[in-house]
UniProtKB/TrEMBL annotation, chain B:
InterPro entries: AAA+_ATPase, ABC_carbohydrate_import_ATPase, ABC_transporter-like_ATP-bd, ABC_transporter-like_CS, P-loop_NTPase. This is Sugar ABC transporter ATP-binding protein. It comes from Paracoccus aerius. Pfam families: ABC_tran. The keyword Membrane does not apply. It comes from the Bacteria. Keywords: ATP-binding, Nucleotide-binding, Repeat, Sugar transport, Transport. SUPFAM superfamilies: P-loop containing nucleoside triphosphate hydrolases. Gene3D superfamilies: P-loop containing nucleotide triphosphate hydrolases. One of its GO terms (molecular function) is ATP binding.
């Protein structure tokens, strides 16, 4: 039948590139190398880039994005895409300030924000796993619904004035000179990493995304984990939204919108590295850094935001091209 | 002109599916191609039909070497392939299916319905004047034999010199077979050679002018059909070097009074009906049958009973309700499925992660938190037990050979649990597995049985069944036939039992 020896392990062989670097290392780390190079180039060419103030600034700018991305990573790991995530950010971003302005105590308002996230996540999960609509379509529709709700709640206006200082501190304060937001970001990354890499829950989410049929035949309750991944997406999104409004000092119904595209971009960039083709929390974190550094660098160079948008779109295309060439990227 | 395959070698990662096969197919004969599962029949016809490109060797038409880089290429060279599964569009009618992609059009855009029906009807009557098929009905509503005829007519559209028919009668009820047989016989006189693959030896014998036997990827012989008896064919297909050593320890008989680990009554799944099935601790029961006979469906449904119903299900003495795989596992049923990369494993995962997929909780510290150290220890234990050849438990699964992958697929059920399962179901447990690993997998099954696990093995490798099973249940037309006991085991008994009434 076969002449392959089953009696001896094949020797460790690695495809090499240019005879010096292992091919799998190139796949895993080239995006990181690009990230470092970009950092160096900006440091050398842009005046105010490499200052502690600016670096903290970047940390602050990417913290919400990272949190949204960490949530999306759960979805991607289970092969579910949440396109409502931007509007979910917006939902918390208006709901929490609205409640606070109306005099609700801070802890209660924060809980209400989380509750809203849970509700959105469960709604998405219901349509995806019980009704059976592909997540891409179900969340596109629920996003539209949320968009409407956000504007209805605020009448289209920003909510400001009367927000308690303790709330604003979450988005603007510093501890030992480091933005509070950065702690939230690191906390979210650490938590998401731990859950994905070190718990049975994370293992099952990856199993469902890795091979749904095999997971099912191994006794994984596939639906439950697909649903959970969508709920986690929404929960991370409302946390980001709550922080976003605190940072802006006002609740703006459309402030969350850019987090959809940017969030997807961080995950896609993350999928080009570490475990190519798989969404990982650390990959997403580096993806957010990537986006943050580009935005910041271009900003300091005086590029206008439309150019940034073009650059970002191009990066997403490149990242997705890399991912789908090396692996079977199949999200629908 | 003849089509000649010369010294064809097909190397897949881990297995050599064809090893220097040479055979000539003529356009005035029905050429039967036989061999047991894994002998290389499918690979050979896939090369002939352009779906696969050989690692070595040549396809010659007449005395010209050709490259068949796609089925379309093969078609242009006059070789058409009618696959086993069927390739009709169910919602279209017969005529539309026959001329799919070659519809007569008005101004190149609008399909001319009338001309299409006429043209299709002409094709049918040109090739098979005696056949009448309703070409206006959606093919989904036609009898299986008519659908097959439509597929064949479509294959004949370009007047090929060779038509490959892969198990054309496997899905047909007995009374419809005769019609198809006549059609097959009528082709060579019209200058179209037929390459026929079939599990039914009597059919091969009755229809073929010449018969080629493959075994383990090697060409055994090509002889005129009348020169070989069915017994000789079975002998040629199955006698193999290494067979004796695989058999190893003779199947030990189990205690007739061992406790029942599984007992089901009136099990229905799809069209399959099993009035009664029981399995004792330590027993290995083989399920055999032709494609579509229902043995695979029955075996699978015991672990994943979606769509199944039954009167009673008793697992290890406890009456159990049907439920999703998770529930059946908790009740003590494990499944090692076929097509492991599709149904069992994740290629991009490490061996350790794959092994822990069923029982990740074993490797946890508390509350669902995984301990890499515990996982590593357990993964190593299972890899050692199963004799998995790999650099480490951190290696990616996709890098392993077929045999080692299969060992991981089995090992999943032993990770964190040596005696959790009372019933283990194996489907095609050695498909794409080399001979050394085969023997190890059989030994593992015997070891598990020795520990009191009841084992069900559904396989199309009859030699495998003969060497590991204690008793065999042949499936014919969606249900079990009379049981075969170890004393009566032989390939020919098996083949008679599974084809018998149907042929």
């Amino acid at each position: 039948m076969s002449d392959t020896a089953s009696g001896a392990a094949a020797p460790a062989r690695h495809d090499m590139v240019l005879g010096i670097v292992r091919k799998d290392h190139v796949q895993r780390y080239s995006t990181l190398v690009v990230l470092v190079l970009m950092f160096i180039v900006f440091s050398l060419t842009v005046d105010r880039f490499l200052t502690s103030q600016n670096l903290l600034n970047i940390a602050q700018q990417i913290s919400m994005l990272t949190i949204v991305g960490a949530g999306l990573t759960f979805g991607f790991a289970a092969r579910e895409m949440d396109l409502s995530v931007g509007f979910t950010v917006g939902l918390a971003g208006v709901l929490v300030p609205l409640l606070l302005v109306a005099g609700t105590p801070l802890p209660l308002a924060l809980l209400a924000g989380l509750g809203a996230g849970l509700a959105v996540g469960l709604m998405n999960a219901f349509f995806v796993t019980i009704v059976g609509i592909p997540s891409l379509i179900a969340t596109l529709a629920s996003g539209s619904i949320l968009f409407g709700i956000n504007f209805l709640m605020t009448g289209g206006r920003a909510i400001y004035g009367g927000l308690p200082p303790a709330y604003l501190w979450l988005g603007q304060g510093r501890i030992l000179g480091i933005p509070v937001l950065a702690f939230f970001m690191l906390g979210a990354v650490a938590l998401a990493w731990f859950v994905m890499e070190r718990t049975v829950f994370g293992r099952y989410v990856y199993a469902v995304g890795g091979n749904q049929k095999a997971a099912e035949l191994s006794g994984v309750q596939v639906r439950r984990y697909r649903a959970a991944s969508l709920v986690v997406c929404s929960l991370f999104a409302v946390i980001a939204g709550t922080l976003l409004a605190a940072r802006l000092g006002s609740g703006q119904p459309n402030a969350g919108e850019r987090y959809l595209l940017d969030g997807l971009a961080t995950v896609f960039i993350g999928m080009t590295m570490l475990r190519p083709g798989t969404a990982t929390v650390l990959g997403t974190f580096f993806g957010a850094l990537f986006i943050g550094i580009i935005n910041n660098g271009l900003n300091l160079m005086g590029m206008d935001t439309y150019i940034q948008s073009i650059v970002k779109g191009a990066i997403i295309l490149v990242a997705v091209a890399i991912v789908s060439r090396s692996t079977k990227l199949n999200l629908l | 002109m003849d089509v000649h395959l010369a010294d064809i070698v097909m190397q897949f990662p881990g297995t050599r599916a064809l090893d220097g096969v040479s055979v000539t197919f003529r356009n005035n004969e029905v050429h039967g191609l036989i061999g047991e599962n894994g002998a290389g029949k499918s690979t050979l016809v896939n090369i002939l039909g352009g779906s696969l490109q050989p690692s070595q060797g040549q396809v010659m038409i007449g005395d010209k070497a050709v490259r068949l880089s796609s089925p379309h290429d093969a078609l242009l060279q006059g070789i058409a392939h009618v696959s086993q599964e069927g390739s009709l569009v169910p919602g279209l009618n017969g005529a539309e299916n026959i001329l799919l992609g070659h519809e007569p059009k008005l101004a190149g855009i609008v399909i001319r319905k009338g001309a299409l029906q006429r043209h299709a009807a002409e094709l049918v009557s040109q090739w098979f004047p005696k056949v009448s098929i309703d070409l206006n009905r959606p093919v989904a509503e036609l009898p299986m034999a008519d659908r097959k005829v439509i597929e064949i007519v479509r294959a004949l559209r370009g007047s090929p010199r060779i038509v490959i028919l892969d198990e054309p009668t496997a899905t047909l009820p007995a009374r419809e077979k005769e019609q198809l047989w006549q059609i097959i016989r009528s082709l060579p006189p019209q200058g179209v050679g037929v390459v026929l693959i079939s599990h039914f030896l009597s059919e091969i014998k009755a229809l073929s002018d010449r018969i080629t036997v493959l075994r383990d990827g090697r060409h055994i012989c090509s002889e005129p059909a009348e020169a070989l008896s069915e017994d000789q064919l079975v002998e040629l297909m199955l006698r193999r070097t290494g067979g004796a050593q695989l058999r190893g320890a003779a199947a030990s008989t189990t205690q007739a009074d061992a406790p029942l680990v599984l007992d089901v009554r009136d099990w229905h799944v799809g069209a399959v009906h099993v009035p009664h099935f029981s399995l004792r601790a330590g027993e290995i029961v083989g399920l055999i049958g032709l494609t579509g006979a229902g043995h695979f469906g029955f075996a699978r449904s015991l672990h994943n009973p979606a769509g199944a119903r039954c009167q009673t299900l008793t697992i290890a003495g406890k009456p159990t309700e049907l439920g999703p795989p998770r529930k059946m596992q908790d009740a003590g049923i494990a499944l090692v499925p076929d097509h492991r990369m599709e149904y069992a494993l994740i290629g991009e995962w490490t061996l350790r992660e794959n092994l822990s997929m069923v029982h990740p909780n074993h490797g946890t510290i508390a509350g669902g938190i995984l301990s890499p150290r515990r996982e590593e220890t357990e993964a190593r234990r299972v890899m050692k037990l199963m004799n998995v050849k790999a650099h480490s438990s951190r290696q990616l699964l996709r890098e392993l050979s077929g045999g080692n992958k299969q060992k991981i697929s089995i090992g999943k059920w032993l990770y964190g649990a040596s005696d959790r399962y009372r019933v283990m179901i194996f489907i095609e447990p050695t498909e794409g597995v080399d001979i050394g690993a085969k023997a190890e997998i059989y030994a593992e099954m015997r070891r598990l049985a020795g520990q009191g696990v009841g084992i069900i093995i559904a396989s199309s490798d009859l030699l495998e069944i003969e060497s590991v099973a204690h008793r065999v249940i042949p499936f014919v037309r969606q249900g079990p036939g009379p049981e075969i006991h170890a004393a009566d085991f032989s390939e020919s008994t098996f083949i008679t039992a599974i084809s018998g009434a149907a042929a």
